[in-house]
Write the structure tokens for this entry.
Amino acid sequence: MPTSRPDLAGRRFFLRATGVRLALPILDSLGANVVRSGLAVTALSANAKTVRPMRMAAIGNAFGFYAQQFFPQTTGANYDTPHLLEPVAKEHRKDISVFSGLDHGVKGGHFAVHSFLSGVRQVDAKGMPDGNISIDQRAAETVGGATRFPSLTLGSEEGLHGGCMMCWTRSGTRVNPIQGPRELFRKLFVNESEAGLAAAKDRLQLQGSILDAVHGDAKSLKNRLGARDQQKLDEYFTSVRDVEKVLELRQKWANVPKPNAPMLEPENRGLVNDIPVLYDLMALVLQTDSTRIATLEIAGGFEASVLGVRKEYHALSHHGQAPEAIELLVKLERYQSEQFARFLTKLKSIDDGDGTLLDHTMVLFGSGMGNGNAHTNLNLPVVLAGGGFKHGQYHAFPTSGLNKQPLSNLFVSMLQRFGIEQQKFALSTGTLRGI
Amino acid sequence: MNFVMLLAFAAVDDAAGFLKTYCIGCHGETVQMANRRFDRGDVDIAAIMRRVEAGTMPPKSAPKQPTAAQRQAYLTHVAKQAPEKIVLRRMNRREYLNTIGDLFQMPMDQFDPTSKFPRDQQWTHMDNIGETLVTSGYLLEQYLDAAEAVVAKALPSQPPPAPRTWVFKDQFQQQKELDGARRANKLTQYMSLFEHPRTPHYEGAYAPLHAFSEGVPFDGVYEVKVQVEALHRKNPYDAKLFGTDPEAPFRFGVVAGNARVGYLQHEQPIQPLLAETVLEDGGPYWLTFQVRLDAGYQPRFIFPNGMNDVRRVFSQFARRFPEFLPEDQRNVAAGIVPGRIAMMKYGKIPQIRIHHVEIRGPLNAPVIPASQRAVYGDRPFAPERTREIIANFASRAYRRPATTEEVNRLMAVAEKRRGAGAEAALKDALKAALCSPAFLYISTAQDKGRLDPYSLASRMSYFLWSSMPDEALLKQAASGALLRDDILRAETRRMLASPRAKAFVDGFLDSWLNLRSLGDMPPERDQFAAYYFDGLQDAMKTETRLLMRHLLDENKSVHDFLDARYSFINKPLARLYGISDGMPSAGGQEFRRVALTDSRRAGLLGHGSVLTVSANGIETSPVTRGIWVLENILGTPPSPPPDDVPALDPDVRGAKSVRDLLTKHRENESCMSCHRSIDPPGFALENFDPIGRWRTKYPNGAAIDASGEMTTGEKFSDIAGLRDAIATRKPAFTRFLTDRLMTYACGRKFDAIDAPAIDGIAKAASAKGDGLRDLVELVVLSDAFRRK
């Protein structure tokens, strides 16, 4: 594998007029005053009480986890740790909660995986008051302009039957992930030069003018369409509004320098090798308050051969109970839980004012696929970490009957802890009992 | 009961009655065969219509059978209820790319403003269905960025520089993996190409000019002179070690590369082949090429039929051929680095050496590039021309005369942007036009119930060229002549004969047969080395495209897709297929028509492209291939995963072969209802390995049993028998292909309601011999194409 470093000569780190370098961790060293979501990080204030905002992270994959090696046999605080759970539970038992019996009650196998964070399949979105908005986008709606990025979605843009497609806006469009560590790095840490900054602001003004013009064109086109086509054209109107919001946010943050990069620009080396780097960048984005909401989806581009498995991932997920297939499948899955455990370790190691970054980040890990072999989306693998919840137990919730709780109950609990006054999410019946 | 009363009964027999009489028994409250239910809920009318029309339902075993008249009455009745369809359709990525190229008269082979666009959403693999394609805020942001890049490129603010020459010689940096050995051996005065460009490790696969990382300064034509040497084509070692063909002369190619995009020594997403030639052995001697390069790009050199993996050669050579190394090198510790140093010095490895490169240009660059002329016309820009230029451009971009209000809105943008100068302001207005729905959406404006001539022209050009109409077509639209049958037909023929129709062949096959996915699951490198060495991926696509092109040009029957006893292949494909007749002994990259004496290879189901795209690169699956055949040849896709049937967790332990595995699935009745249609065609194709090579045994040694039985009763023992079974359904295939063509042509979903229209076109095509060109003409002249 080539190891030569990329050429850094073309990039310039712009030091703002204040002459202060924003080094990491930015918050403590400058005594910045950070308050709850809705207000921006302001650097340079002295004597600040450091109260950190709550963050949210979610990680999902397309084919699920082999249940027999994921869910423990015993419930409660002294649960056993099957092979797939072991990397996470060994290090972080006190900081995680493991769940079984939770799901969204949907069917469709690969065609329902995308409902993991929204609780609603895309085809059913029209009938729901909030469409099929995913929990991360719902949280992002409330952050306003407090962070440069309302949320950051990372990972596979596609995959079998579209891949995970985890994140959905209120208007029912899928949020496209940033696929490579290199692109994410540049977004986060590479500032414009002085000339570049002026050009960027000018461009924002131009784009605003363009949006005005095309909005007029769309209004005039709409009058000439049939009813159903008019509805279809609404996508364009929504897009114009969405971009206007993005431009506003960019305008606001144009003068704020990005944090200094604490690492060299990474290369893209394929999803399997990129996963640890993406996790590291996720920790950084949360630490630097570049965003408070980050997601990672693992689907297309996961080359099993990188882990020494010479069979195709999807084919292995249809193991048909054959032990040889299960063994290989579990190898691919264990890598994912190991990387997740490493992410939690990283979050725990980062000081975040009155606690660690993990204390202030609720992390959801799992999949919208319950049983890849049977193509069912029930009894999903779910682990919740951090965020100040009461952890340390394995909760085996009932899979049917009167006491069954939808997974979206957990989402209501999460949104409330995030700071949102919300009683219902998708088909929830309340908050999740037991945590 | 006399005849009149029977007739009366038939007249009363409406849609609900039909289903109740003939279908509900097996698809109703008590039983839901194949997980389908017709008495309530979401009834899949299209699936019902297809099978009623084809006669496959009710099955022969059913107690009651409708007459042909009753079937027709039901179909017509359903068709009469026509809810409004979504026909609004935005351009997809490839259409956008082509349109920009035509609008600005710019070559787009080294410039892709769509590279960050999200993937187009597909419906049944079609990438141009209006209802399915989504416009999102993210996409609109990409449109804004793309418009900037496009206008900057089309209207450069600098004139072309004077031609200059760059010289590279005496010292070449190649890449880290090789440079250590090159320096150790003092061999840095030339570059060496060892591998073909599709290798796993890229050691000597590309010979780039690292000293020229900035690339050429301006879009234009450049002369590239290169001094090459072709060495060791015939060598004393085992040919298998290198994987090259000692009989084939070396090929030498020039591809574009851009240091800003990625490593120059690796494959890049945009790297068109700019030139290629065959080398004589020996040298050094000079070659001269003239190639077009975009600013920032450089020429890189490749060895298209080089080795598969020189890294492996470096490590294995000392072990396998110690006698060819000097004594003191023979016991060199195993390891890639010493191996490489020794091999480079003493080994006679096949390679192309590059000693000297000179690049000169831009040659004869027009002072006013064609793209600028396309926007400004022949006169230069002047502030007082702003409105005229904008109006002109908008009319061309919107593919119809722009309205005064539309021009006013663009002028308002120019007005707001005056500060940077009149020309910059104009350019900004052009960017706005490129983000307008009038540009992005393909018009379906109507006049008196039919598409107006401009909308019709757009629909035609996006069907046959995946791009905007040309001036000739727009002229016919402007006068209204395009509404006449004879003009419409003449234009269709003209457009099919144009080289632009390549977009139709490529785009339609990519959609219909899902060939755009070829390469998504790359075949395993060790087992299928030939796929990479021989460039089979491209060759396979070319084969299928040449077949369709042939059917169009010669107006041959579409049934040749099913069982043509000829194909268009090159030598590597001939090797894959085990064909030796009709192929030259040496060279043979050219495609030629060959007769297929082996009937098992006939038709699309024998094409490497189809067989590879329906496998996963590692192994075949009768289920995947069976579904592919049902979806794309028979037109009877299996029903989607069951909604209200309890889930099964398949347990296939104890299955010794894949047939065993599937039999276990079929022991369960609800699995069986779909798998009895899926499995048989899948089994018939098991004799083709994951890249389409014929085999009689599985890799584990088990014999292949390709026999099966269709649900309609035909039994077969291998693919030839399956083909015969399919051949009895030729009218159904014509109808199915008509449906696919109409879907692609109109960019909307066709379903049960449209069945009579599709039938009509298919029958008319069959009456004329099922010729593909006739079918395409009938599609364009059809009522459905000319209406919204």
About this structure: Chain A touches chain B through 64 residues (CB under 8 Å).
